[in-house]
């Protein structure tokens, strides 16, 4: 619990200030580490298969200088989805009324030629439980560039590890990467 630790520090700082002593920050800008910022959105913003019209999503993204974490939660998936795995990927554009509006999968622009697909894209295949819910996370050892990606799409099939294909686009959530 932090309160007992902070109370003496605040008391000491108050005593020093009252005595006229100058207060120096505990961390200088050179030593301070910026905290990664979380992006959290709810969706979907587009439904491309009406069987998934009641589905809901929550996408969370955290980036630091060298890594990106993406989390996907789905609920309200149709009964027929229970037990199935759906591909989910980061795409380059925002969602739109047509499935293709989200554009292609986002690729790490710094990946050397010949990099295997799973290492240059963000994949979050999600398996739906009997209650219509599912959760998936992905972490990549590179940063999705700011404003270079725009959505997360849930596809009809599991992701093919060789091609990255996952079938038709079912729902799309716009994410302001």
Automatic annotation (TrEMBL):
Residues 1-17 form the signal peptide. Its EC number is 1.15.1.1. Keywords: Oxidoreductase, Signal. GO terms for molecular function: metal ion binding; superoxide dismutase activity. InterPro entries: SOD-like_Cu/Zn_dom_sf. Belongs to the Cu-Zn superoxide dismutase family. This is Cu-Zn family superoxide dismutase. It comes from Actinomadura luteofluorescens.
């Amino acid at each position: 619990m932090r309160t007992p630790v902070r109370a003496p520090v605040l008391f000491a700082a108050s005593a020093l200030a009252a005595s006229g002593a100058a207060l120096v920050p505990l961390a200088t800008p050179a030593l301070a580490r910026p905290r990664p910022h979380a992006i959290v959105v709810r969706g979907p913003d587009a439904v491309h298969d009406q069987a998934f019209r009641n589905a809901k999503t929550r996408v969370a993204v955290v980036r630091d200088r060298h890594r990106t974490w993406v989390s996907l939660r789905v609920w309200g998936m149709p009964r027929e989805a229970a037990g199935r795995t759906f591909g989910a990927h980061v795409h380059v554009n925002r969602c739109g009324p047509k499935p293709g509006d989200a554009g292609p999968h986002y690729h790490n622009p710094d990946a050397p030629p010949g990099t295997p697909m799973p290492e240059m894209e963000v994949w979050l295949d999600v398996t739906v439980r009997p209650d219509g819910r599912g959760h998936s996370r992905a972490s990549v050892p590179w940063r999705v560039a700011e404003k270079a990606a725009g959505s997360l799409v849930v596809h009809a099939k599991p992701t093919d590890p060789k091609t990255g294909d996952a079938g038709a686009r079912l729902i799309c959530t716009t994410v302001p990467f």
